[in-house]
Amino acid sequence: MRYLHELDQSTWFIPATSLFLYAVACALPCLEYETFAGEREIWFGYSILLQGWMAILVGQVAWLANPVWLLAMLFFVFRRWSLAITASLGGLLLAGSALLLFRQNVVLNIEGGIIPQQRPLIGVAVWLLSQVVLFSGAVLMRHRQRVAGPR
Known about the structure:
Elements: H1 2-6, H2 9-27, E1 29-34, E2 40-44, H3 45-51, H4 65-77, H5 81-96, E3 106-107, E4 114-115, E5 117-120, H6 122-148
Antiparallel strand pairs: 1-2, 1-5, 3-4
Helix pairs in contact: 2-6, 4-5, 4-6, 5-6
């Protein structure tokens, strides 16, 4: 039990904050686009999380940031700072590639359905922020460990 009191609060606060932001991003609108019929449609984060993996089939890799983020969370919780930094940086780069999607047409289905005009909404920013928090936290924790020296 004594060990639990010795745990640094930021060891849990940082991943908890990242997880909270990630969950909030899933509940927020992330993508707005205009259909060919001129109707406006909005996709929320949870639907992109559930269906976004299919974008990999057409070369859009931003969704892969999700499993990489989860891996980085595990490394962080187990205090593997260098691995957490590497994984979270990879996740952040993959997540950042989502911004490129807003400059190109996105395939909706294999029959040629394409989203012609799209724009990111607040959920994308919150999702990216969850990635930044985890990466920054891993860098901070590794720095703190180096300053404190070996135990």
